[in-house]
Amino acid sequence: MELSRRDALAALSALGTTAMAGCAARAPQEGVDESVVETYVAIAAVVYPTAVSGVPSFVRSFLPARLDRSTHGPAMRETVTELQTVSREWYDEEVPALDESARDQLLREVGVDAADEDPEGTLAERVRFYVVNELLLALYSSPTGGDLVGIENPQGHPGGTDTYQRGPSK
Amino acid sequence: MSDDRQPVADADLCVVGAGPAGALVAARLAEAGQEVVVLDAGPRFDADDRLARQERAIRPAYDRPDVWEGDPKRDAHAASGEWFYPLNHARVKGVGGSTLHWQGMVMRLHEADFRSASERGVGVDWPLDYADLRPHYAEAEREIGVAGGMDNPYAPPREEPFPMAPFEPSYSDSLFAEACAELGIDMHSVPNARNSEPYDDRSECVGYGTCQPVCPSGAKYDATVHIERAEAAGATVIDRAPVQHLAHDADAIEAAVYATPDGERHRQPAEQFVLACGGVETPRLLLLSKSAQYPDGLANSSGLVGRYFMDHLFAGTGGVLDEPTRQNHVGFLTSESHQFYDEADAEVGPFKLEFFNYAGPSPVEMALSGEDWGDDLLGRLREDYGNHVAVGALVEQLPREDSYVGLDRDQTDDHGNPVPDVHWNVGDRALRTIERANEIQERILEQLGAEITWQAGPDSTGPAYHHMGTTRMGTDPDESVVDPRLQTHDLDNCWIVSSSVFPTGGAMNPTLTIGALALRAAEHLDDAL
């Protein structure tokens, strides 16, 4: 299933960040944020199911608005920077340069798989909060992410009041 | 809105609490030309932050009180009763009050609820009956904006359709309908305080699915609607202004003494005072206002301030089917059954059945916990989502003297005041009623062919977060705190609008009755002013 611009706008809604009228999803900023966005795209390739396509453009569409948030954005950058440091120390490469299995391994070695999300916790808990769950919330609250599971109007998506009335065959 | 939080000169009316009761009274009296000031302990929330609050509601890092900025020090409390009471999951402090996080179900009490002692042989009769409140119910439905249908054969008589058409039944309702038809159980629509169409300059429901605890679209009514209307008519609203005590003489309140974030204390005098801070903080404020004249607390010559604390109890049964049930598209209910409600007697209380549209896990929330991601996570979501069903029930608890709100003098809040102690006991009749509701729920699910996987029964029930009974209404000053006009027996200018005045609770969600009583009291207040 292809993630669309509509999915990205839905993700902005569920992530508590509405797009401004007329300037929906902005291009990522140059420099530091490009590196951060690349890392999110690389992690998304690991934590998203193989059934979805269009992941890079989806992530690039919703992420800039999140990075713009006054306290959330800096914490996202800081968490990614720490993860990059670990990646360089353990794998001699930054996250985007690792192959998918190494990225998956890195996350598990940091302890992200077993961590509960916590915005003020350990690195594992913060990676879970600011990176992995950020990506998963964006995907599974979008129409395409919902469709993967069998729900056209997942929680967080303002998909109207028709779908709850429909049977499974629509 | 007052930014400097200074008292208002020449106030006619001071309302303590900016929830639905206080907001309705404030709007009515401000529109009638009175000088109104509203004090609330909590903040005024920015409507633009609602999507961010929705994210908090979904993400596992946040607990329910975090969504609306609960403050553990400000909101400290005790729970010394036989049953633990999770007070800070049950309320929101701030402009809008607990309607900010409520479910938004708005039913009228049944006629027999007003005559519990006479008709059911337990509890007490209200000092007014359904006919007295009936026009105010209709008025409250218009003010709040209720979407409902005329298809409930068990509802009390009504004079006109609801302001909006009901929400259509859900797909899972249709599954229940077949089973209930086989069992002779009638299903019907649910009166919802959410817009099924644009109403009162607010959007129709757009299906965010997080109604409880936050509606980002504003389609669900909350009391900021009437606070804004009160302000438009000239009322002043002062937030983060917890009232510390009520200064008084022998016959009347002189001023509400409130604190502000800068550490200052102010006196807000007024001609009349309305206490509208719910079933816990209202009795607490009266008890905190004790004096040499009133050593047991204000308006407490009966000794009943804080007594008879009640809540509704939840009974539920859930399970899974071997087919899709289409849950969690929306966060509200579209079908109930009130068929068994008026079978209540001394042994078994009234209860209503609720057919869930959000049984089982939400895939979004499920995705944010667990030790998997990628294809493994998707597999788990597909496995766990989609075939759940559940039937809930609300059950009446009788008023009991050993169920009360008192003060815990061993703990203090952020201003050094003793914290409220919710000493909650429910009684055997409520537990029997839960068993009865569970029996019917099991029959429905078995008829449906469901495998039952959980049950909230007498040993695992919990409160519905409806605080009632702690300043009960009556005609006898020895047996009640307020009279049928909601004026305290003891003080000339003190009124209480809240579910705290309910003599009994019935088993219907209380907010519509709170609204009807508030509008009725507003008429008396207007006369008094």
Automatic annotation (TrEMBL), chain A:
Region (Disordered): 149-170
Superkingdom of the organism of origin: Archaea
Protein name in the entry: Gluconate 2-dehydrogenase subunit 3
Alphabetized PROSITE patterns for the sequence: PROKAR_LIPOPROTEIN, TAT
Taxon lineage: Archaea, Methanobacteriati, Methanobacteriota, Stenosarchaea group, Halobacteria
InterPro entries documented for this protein: TAT_signal
Organism expressing this protein natively: Halovenus aranensis
From TrEMBL, chain B:
Named cofactor requirement(s): FAD
Every 4Fe-4S ferredoxin-type domain range: 196-225
InterPro entries: 4Fe4S_Fe-S-bd, FAD/NAD-bd_sf, GMC_OxRdtase_N, GMC_OxRtase_C, MIP_CS, P2Ox-like
GO MF: flavin adenine dinucleotide binding; oxidoreductase activity, acting on CH-OH group of donors
Record flagged with keyword Aminoacyl-tRNA synthetase: no
PROSITE patterns: 4FE4S_FER_2, MIP
Gene3D superfamilies named among the record's database cross-references: FAD/NAD(P)-binding domain (3.50.50.60)
Keyword Oxidoreductase: yes
SUPFAM superfamilies, alphabetized: FAD-linked reductases, C-terminal domain, FAD/NAD(P)-binding domain
Keyword annotations: FAD, Flavoprotein, Oxidoreductase
Family: Belongs to the GMC oxidoreductase family.
Protein name (database record): Choline dehydrogenase
